[in-house]
Amino acid sequence: MGGKRKNSESEGMEGDNDGKNSNKKMKKEKTEILPSSIKNKEKRSAVHAKLKHQKKLDKRKKLKARAAAEKRALELGEEPPPKQIPRTIENTREADATVCMPDDEELFAGNDADEFSSILKHDRTPKILITTCRFNSTRGPAFISELLSVIPNAHYYKRGTYDLKKIVEYANNKEFTSIIVVHTNRREPDGLLIIGLPDGPTAHFKLSSLVLRKDIKNHGNPTSHKPELVLNNFTTRLGHRIGRLIQSLFPQDPNFQGRRVVTFHNQRDFIFFRHHRYIFETKESKQSDSKGKKAKDAKDESIAKEKVVAHLQECGPRFTLKLVNLQHGTFDTKGGEYEWVHKPEMDTSRRRFFL
Amino acid sequence: MPRTTTVECPVYPPFRALTFDALGLIKVIEARGGVPKVVDRWGEPDASKCVLAASIDDRKTDPLLAVARKNGVIEVLNPLNGELLVTVSDFGNSSARPEDDAIVGLHLFRRQRLELTSRLCTLLTCTTKGNASVKTVDISDSPEDSGASKTWNVCASGNIACSQVDGSENYALFGGKGVEVNMWDLDKCTNIWSAKPPPPNSLGIFTPTWFTSATFLSKDDHRKVVAGTNSHEVRLYDVSAQRRPVISFDFRETPIKAVTEDLDGHTIYIGNGSGDLASVDIHTGIKLILYACSAILLHFAFLILGRSSFFWKSLS
């Protein structure tokens, strides 16, 4: 009760002040009714809701004004006002000194000298060994069988109780080029370890959001053609190295007639894996008449009528990876040197990414 | 509104650092009160010329920089402009190919003032198989090696991983995988001291010897030695006291890749395999400052330049 009286008093005072300050700038009025300064929760939430509603109305007004301006400009035949670019976290990413530049000769020299160059230069064909952790159950085997269909020339061996360092030795003897270890936790695959051979780096990824083929609606069945590989957005030096590591898993001569594509898309340090079959179709665009009138004379009418579109059918698993650490040399967690380790103190900024 | 925090760019004391990488490039980084920048780059990117070890004789007049490369060649350069003065190949006259017996440690001895006019410099190298050799090289007009050399074997078995020469340049330290830290007198080429591993603990567990880096604690005293092991332990040895380590402490979980001493004689800087850098007061064993490094990094190489001690990482 006392609280109510106090607030009504303050409101009354504010009302008086408003009257006095109506001549002054609007800014001052806004600072007077900051919701965070009101102690009463009901009043505060009411003021906040009002502010939000006001903001929403302002936004809608701006949107309508923009749409109207664009429509008017199009009708008059003028250039519409330039479209504004939304601010995204990727747009405002912190400048990174380790981003690969196209004219960096040291990068190319480094690429020639690194562990993958022999595979990427077609000297060796990739041969992958897939294995699991010691206890593998439920979704693990299904995931492994799907991985075997995605990556050509991949072989699955049961883990048994072998030490990983010994497995590396055996794989080197049998001339494999990479080892993939799928780690399972609580009956769900949640880690991926990619070891390059003979003395390549070891990348440890966190695996999440796994969707198996049978759970994808309208999925397709992959063929055995060599897939095309799409690696998106691996910009920094570390990202480039990881990109080359992934590239060394797949054969370097894709069979385009097989129309099979595997995509590793990096966004905000998460690598999204997708596996599609695609087909190109030429579509007769029906809106060509109305647009044809406005189209410039230089444009050929036939092009305006036909468009080539690609249809994708997803097949194979879908999962996301996040790099946990990259170790130089084969698997040796205690004795090895780490090229990159994720430490929590690196996550200080929302706009800082490493891949 | 994006929540960004700006960190004030710290004011660095002016310094000049040389860094060496696995492509054989030598880069000069300078900071004059502002952000450090690469001002010069010497050499062409070539993986066979990967720099394995470096040493500098930083005098006011006519300084020299010696660089050991992967193809077995040792080059002596002028650190001011990168000009190649001498190339020494086939160091130590060993029959082993450079790939098998890579150079692990290199030290360029300081030249006395009297030798200002004479163009001689002395190099000490050590390879992984333990072949240490001291050679005098003439930097005259013809950039070819000549001169006497002394070679001896430092370890019977095992691999040498680190070597260091003390401030007075009479004693040298060697240590490695399966090789205990041992100190040699350079004039007489004799082993004057070798360490003993700490006793196995109460469970009888004994970690095999593997020293990854070692240094003398102070420039004037050759008796105190700090060594880092592959099992993330840093040990202080006193040559005059006993063969077992005097103090030993653990640092994180990855091998200690580099140890270097500060000029004050009781602080050391340690760097490990997962990119952590710390400075420790050796008297108390307390970590003074822990530096967080998150960039791509591999080997740590410590160089002491001029009046200020500085450290750098070399990317492999």
In short:
The complex is a heterodimer of chains A (355) and B (316). Chain A has 355 residues and is an alpha+beta fold.
Describe this structure in words.
- The complex is a heterodimer of chains A (355) and B (316).
- Chain A has 355 residues and is α+β, with helices and mostly antiparallel strands.
- Chain A has two domains: 47-79; 105-346, Brix domain (Rossmann fold), CATH 3.40.50.
- Helices cover 34% and strands 25% of the residues of chain A.
- Chain A has helices at 2-21, 26-32, 41-76, 105-113, 117-120, 139-150, 164-173, 237-247, 288-294, 301-305; strands spanning 128-132, 154-156, 178-185, 188-196, 202-211, 228-232, 260-267, 270-284, 306-314, 318-328, 337-341.
- In chain A, strand 6, helix 8 and strand 7 (260-267) form a beta-alpha-beta unit.
- The two termini of chain A are 58 Å apart.
- In chain A, 23% of the residues are buried.
- Residues 6-21 and 288-302 of chain A have low confidence and may be disordered.
- Chain B is mainly β and 316 residues long.
- Chain B has no helices and 25 strands.
- Classes of the chains: A alpha+beta (355), B mainly beta (316).
- The interface between A and B is medium-sized, with 29 and 27 residues.
For the termini of chain A, the CA-CA separation is 58 Å
Q: Any idea what the CATH superfamily of the largest domain in chain A is called?
A: Brix domain
Stretches of chain A where pLDDT is under 50 for at least 5 consecutive residues are: 6-21, 288-302
The percent range for strand residues of chain B is over 45%
Q: For this structure, what is the CATH class of the largest domain in chain B?
A: Mainly Beta
**Radius of gyration of chain A, whole Å:** 29 Å
| Beta-strand proportion of chain A | 15-25%
Mean pLDDT across every amino acid position of chain B? 76
- CATH fourth-tier homologous superfamily of the largest domain in chain B: YVTN repeat-like/Quinoprotein amine dehydrogenase
Determine the N-to-C terminus distance of chain B: 40 Å
* Helicity of chain A, as a percent range: 25-40%
* Poorly predicted residue ranges of chain B: 294-316
What is the level 1 CATH name of the largest domain in chain A? Alpha Beta
The radius of gyration of chain B is 20 Å
Number of helices of chain B: 0
Q: What's the assembly state of these chains?
A: heterodimer
InterPro entries (chain A): Brix, IMP4/RPF1
GO molecular function (chain A): rRNA primary transcript binding
Protein name (chain A): Ribosome production factor 1
Keywords (chain B): Membrane, Transmembrane, Transmembrane helix
